[in-house]
Amino acid sequence: MDKYMKRSFTKLRTALAILIACCLTTDMYAQTAVAADSVATDTVAQLVSGVNTVWMLLAAMLVFFMQPGFALVEAGFTRTKNTANILMKNFVDFMFGSLLYWLVGFGIMFGLGDFFGTPHLMSLLFDSNGLPDPASLPTEGFLVFQTVFCATSATIVSGAMAERTKFSMYLVYTIFISVLIYPVSGHWTWGGGWLMNGEAGSFMTETFGTTFHDFAGSTIVHSVGGWIALVGAAILGPRIGKYGKDGRSKAIPGHNLTIAALGVFILWFG
Predict the structure, then answer these.
(1) Do 97 and 151 contact (CB within 8 A), yes or no?
(2) Which of 66, 131, 142, 201 has the fewest Cβ atoms within 10 angstroms?
(3) Is the pLDDT of residue 137 over 50?
(4) What is the rounded distance in angstroms from the CA atom of residue 154 to the CA atom of residue 255?
């Protein structure tokens, strides 16, 4: 009897040992699988963020490439004596406009508020209804993307007011469009302002039944720059010598159609 009991206990111990080993192996495998899934999820998120960032910066480079396009078009269609002036205005647009937009305009455009946000003085850490998720798109890269759009909006005006604007007054205009006009109009749409308010009872919902939709900056960038250019040209009037005493217009040909045509192709590409 003792012999059979010993054999039974031996078999039982062996079975328990096998069972414990299986449980430990299963638990370790489950932990390993969970860790592998977590690593895979993090890897995919990082990959998506990297692809989004590269794509956004590539688009920003194309928009920035429009700056030399505007410079060539405007310089080519103006007279030789005004070439240095118009080229310097295009440089100033981006140099001063970028710093001012980062300092004040970015916060006004993407800060909280219905009509305008709050300046955050170069800080990128603030609450917003319009900024993308930093996990999928870094705010620093998004700032670069918006900065080149702000510079484009400002540059549109320089051609409409070419050859009849003081350089100092053009600096004043650049300041206003970089810190106030473009950021406020951009806040109404891309910044989550009143034109994008889709809540029940909001102005857009009650009036149109939907929110405003911009197509590739056609309103926020190009239309804003175009309307400012129209107002500036209307205030300044025609260039001296454009009309004779009899009221007939006179041609004032540009000094270099080759670089003007090159600028047009660059703008098409951008």
Answers:
(1) yes
(2) 201
(3) yes
(4) 24
**Cα–Cα separations (whole angstroms), residue 81 to 4, 244, 254:** 115, 21, 11
Q: Contact 155/67 with Cβ under 8 angstroms?
A: yes
pLDDT of 74-133, one tens digit each? 999 999 898 888 888 888 888 888 889 988 888 888 888 778 888 878 777 777 777 887
Burial 255-269 (b: 16+ CB within 10 A, else e): ebeebbebbeebbee
Contacts of 99 by beta carbon, 8 Å cutoff, 6+ apart? none
With left for phi above 0 and alpha for psi between -120 and 50, is residue 150 left, alpha or beta? Answer: alpha
- In the numeric block, the tokens 């031996």 are attached to 10
Q: What is the pLDDT of residue 262?
A: 93
200: left (phi over 0), alpha (psi -120 to 50) or beta: beta
Both tokens of residue 170?
């053009």
Q: Are 197 and 203 in contact (CB under 8 A)?
A: yes
Tokens 């300044």 sit at which residue? 236
Query: The dihedral of CA 186, 189, 195, 198: what is its sign?
Result: negative
* Residue 122, number of CB atoms within 10 A of its CB: 12
Confidence at residue 148, expressed as pLDDT on a 0 to 100 scale: 92
At 244 the pLDDT is 82
Beta carbons within 10 angstroms of residue 238's beta carbon? 12
CA quadruple 147, 153, 156, 162: dihedral sign: negative
Longest dimension (CA), the chain: 135
229 token code pair? 């250019």
Q: How many helices (H) and strands (E) are present in the chain, helices listed first?
A: 10, 0
